Amino acid sequence: MKLHQLFSNLNGAKTSTADLAILEQDVASICFDARQVKPNSVFVAIKGSENDGHAFIKDAVFNGAIALVVENSSNVPSDFPHFVLEVSDTREFLAVLAARFYNFPSQELFCFGVTGTNGKTSITYILEHIMSYYKKTLGVIGTVNHRVGQKIWSTQMAMQMTTPDAVTLQSRLRDFINEGATAVALEVSSHAIEQKRIQEVHFNTVIFTNLTLDHLDYHKSMQKYFEAKQKLFTEMMWSTIKNPKFAVINIDDSYGRKLTVADDVFAWTYGESESDFQFKILNMNFNETEFEIITAVETIKSTLPVCGEHTIYNIVASCVAALSASISLEQSLKALNTFSGVPGRLQKVESQTKKTVFIDYAHTPDALENVLSSIQKIRSSSKSNAKIICVFGCGGDRDKTKRPLMGEIAFRLSDYVIVTSDNPRTENPQSIIEDITHGLAADHTSDYRKYIIEQDRELAIQKAINRAQEGDVVLIAGKGHEDYQIIGSEKKPFSDYEVAKKYL
Fold this sequence. Notes:
The protein has 18 helices and 24 strands. The protein has 504 residues and is an alpha/beta fold. The strands form 4 sheets. Strands 9-8-7-10-6-11-12-13-14-15-16 form an 11-stranded mixed β-sheet, sandwiched between helices. The chain has a 6-stranded mixed β-sheet with strand order 17-18-22-19-20-21, with helices on both faces. It starts with a helix and ends with a helix.
């Protein structure tokens, strides 16, 4: 794409006029990190929470930038001879340029956007399975990885988290199309919404799972957190060119009941409460669940090889979303008869013993309560005397307010708790553990035998499995699919699943 094509019809205060030869240059890349700039790149200066890209404009120029997009041109070298555009919001402009550069890929795909504190990853996996069963190629952008078919991109590279930056996002959508995809399921984080990374994604269907305590270190309050999520259902859906447009909303969640959608969006609710797609769990054990979905016109029963109430929430949400893509509920449930579950989401560890060990990503109070409550309900419905042993920790350099809450939940819903390290990062692991133990029941001193502290995560898992008797359940929570542990600034190989398998 030529430089003049990239910037045509875009509003901004042009502070420097490029010569005609530069305007005819092919743009090599769009960058917001000056270190990635190469000859013929466009550099967009972004103000971040820790660094301001405007401070690195000279580096970008030195590395060969032929155009600069800035909010303040004072750091632009006076002798820079090329194109400069001054705008009020470079984040928003970055998304626009990225979409243009990759020729608006989201307009060629059926786009699912999944948001909420918990359940995003699971729903993308379930949608992928349903679509694949009916020979529809769907790409996934999320926490675990980016993938389409057999092609996988790691999300452990720098700057790639739940929802990637705008440039990576648009590039990946184009990759998906090149690999034959006709649809995409995108995990949408609140950070991504606030930072306008998804500003130029045209969604067909957006899904709201729930909203619980998390990310308050960033949003400062639950209201601000909710307002960020709300934008996906209003601002983003107002701007999409897709038609028709759908929103799938968990009506059992208090924030789901508050959620509003753009006027031209069809809103479908789901949950155990009365809703457009109401479900009822009939029977559940650690191997399968029988449930029914009740709509205004039919009741559909299904038995699937999964367990956990929150898993059924995610399955129903996915089936409703698939309906917006012209796959019936019956078709989706048929496809899910062969669904083996989501890595790290109530994932059962293969074993020849009669001990049941689950790996789960639960790293928020709500997620931990959901998974432990599900295990308790299964134990109760199957009239089992199984003990529930919970191993968990909390990540360092993240929201501290949830630590004591998770401690209280684990203590209340488990028969035995082992508090350990998660990803301590640059925090003292023992300090994190102390924050957790502040939340243990007020009378924990009289029941000190109900929990222990083992800072070494591998030893904690070993102790939990050794303590478990036949029929008992061990939940290893917090890291799920992750195959590493971050200690200090070092990322060390570590898999809860592989460690558990070793000691089983």
